[in-house]
Specification:
Length: 334
C-alpha cells in the first residue's frame, strides 16, 4: 500500500498542493472554511507530513537528542520526565537513545543523532570515546553532560560527585559505629565505580580497610539481584554489620533476603541505598538512601539547552554541582 502524499490530499480537498502546504505550515494565513476542508481531507486520508523534507527546507528540526545508558532502571524515569515536560512544552520533540552502558554504542548514538540534525544533545554521563568527544566538540550545537561532574566539560555539565556521595553513605554507617561494611553492586559502570572509590576512601580514612566486603555481579540492578548478592555473601560466612548498596533496588532485595533468614534490619544489619527512589520512604523498615536530584537535573539540562538555542550561541564550559543528601531512615537506625 503506497503512502498518502500531499498531492492526494490536494486532490481529495479540491485545492492545489500549495494551498495544502500553506494550511499545514501557516494555518492562520488561510480562511477558516478552507482550513477545515483541508484538515478534513488530511484526517480522512490519514496523511502524515514529510517531516524530513520540511526540516531540510527550514534548517530546523525542533528535536533534541538524549542518550541514557539504560531504559531498564527506573532512576532515569524522573530525569526523562523532566526533559519531556520542558522541551515538549517548548515545541521540541525528544529523541531518546539507549547506549546500554557501552561507550562504543554511545559514539554510534551520537553519530545517528547528528545525522538526524538534532538541535542539541543531552547525555547521561561524562565518559566518552575520544572520537565521540571530538564529534561533540566539533558539532555546532549545545551539549549537556549530566549525572556526574567533569573537570573538563564539553559545554554544560550538571551533576553531582558520585565519589563524594559514596563516601558520605559509607561515613554515615561508620558514624553509626560499624566496621564491617559491605558494598553491593551490579554493573560496575563509571558511576558505580566512583561510588566504590568513595566507599574505599571512607573505609581507608577510618582505618577499616581490612573489614571491606565487596560483592559485584555484572547484571542490571534489580531487587532480585540485591537478594542474590546478599545471599551469596551470607552463605560464605561474610556477615557484615552494615551494607551499602549502589542503588535502592539492590538495597530492597538485600533487606528482603535478610528478612527471609531471620536477620533483623537494623538490629542485626543496617542497610543504605542510593538514589532515594519513591519506595525508599515507604519500605518496611524505611530505607536510608542517598538522594540524587534526577528530576532537577533533567529540568535544568532542558532549560539550559533552550536558552542556548534561543541565543543561537554555543555555551562555554559551565559546571553545575546539584549535590546530594543523605536521607536517614529506619534501615540504619534513623
Amino acid at each position: 500500500m503506497r503512502r498518502v502524499t500531499l498531492d492526494d490530499v490536494a486532490s481529495f480537498a479540491g485545492v492545489s498542493p500549495i494551498t495544502v502546504s500553506r494550511v499545514l505550515r501557516k494555518p492562520d494565513a488561510v480562511s477558516e472554511p478552507l482550513r477545515q476542508r483541508v484538515n478534513a481531507a488530511v484526517k480522512e486520508l490519514g496523511y502524515v507530513p514529510n517531516v524530513a523534507a520540511s526540516r531540510l527546507a527550514s534548517a530546523r528540526t525542533h528535536t533534541i537528542g538524549v542518550i541514557v545508558p539504560t531504559l531498564y532502571n527506573v532512576i532515569f524515569a524522573e530525569y526523562l520526565l523532566a526533559l519531556h515536560e520542558v522541551l515538549v512544552d517548548a515545541g521540541f520533540q525528544v529523541v531518546v537513545v539507549n547506549s546500554r552502558y557501552s561507550e562504543i554504542e554511545e559514539e554510534n548514538a551520537i553519530k545517528a543523532l547528528l545525522g538526524q540534525r538534532v538541535e542539541a544533545i543531552i547525555i547521561a554521563g561524562i565518559h566518552h570515546t575520544a572520537h565521540a568527544r571530538q564529534l561533540l566538540e566539533h558539532a555546532n550545537l549545545p551539549v549537556v553532560e549530566t549525572f556526574e561532574l567533569s573537570q573538563d566539560p564539553i559545554d554544560i555539565n550538571i551533576g553531582m560527585s558520585q565519589e563524594s556521595a559514596g563516601q558520605a553513605a559509607t561515613q554515615h554507617l561508620i558514624k553509626r559505629g560499624f566496621k564491617r561494611i559491605a558494598f553491593l553492586t551490579g554493573n560496575l559502570d563509571h558511576r558505580s565505580q566512583s561510588r566504590l572509590e568513595g566507599y574505599h576512601r571512607a573505609m581507608r580514612e577510618a582505618g577499616f580497610e581490612g573489614f571491606e566486603l565487596v560483592k559485584q555481579k555484572p547484571r542490571h540492578s534489580a531487587i532480585a539481584l540485591g537478594s542474590t548478592l546478599c545471599a551469596e555473601m551470607l552463605k560464605r560466612g561474610n556477615i557484615p554489620e552494615a551494607i551499602f548498596c549502589t542503588d535502592d533496588n539492590l538495597a530492597l532485595g538485600a533487606m528482603q533476603e535478610c528478612r527471609k533468614r531471620g536477620i533483623g534490619i537494623p538490629s542485626d544489619i543496617s542497610v543504605i541505598g542510593f538514589h532515594d527512589l519513591e519506595f525508599a520512604a515507604c519500605a518496611s523498615p524505611s530505607l536510608s538512601s542517598i538522594a540524587s536530584r534526577r528530576y532537577e537535573t533533567g529540568r535544568l539540562a532542558a532549560e539550559k539547552v533552550l536558552s542556548a538555542i534561543q541565543a543561537s550561541s554555543r555555551p562555554g564550559g559551565e559546571r553545575i554541582d546539584l549535590g546530594f543528601e543523605v536521607k536517614v531512615r529506619e534501615s540504619t537506625g534513623g
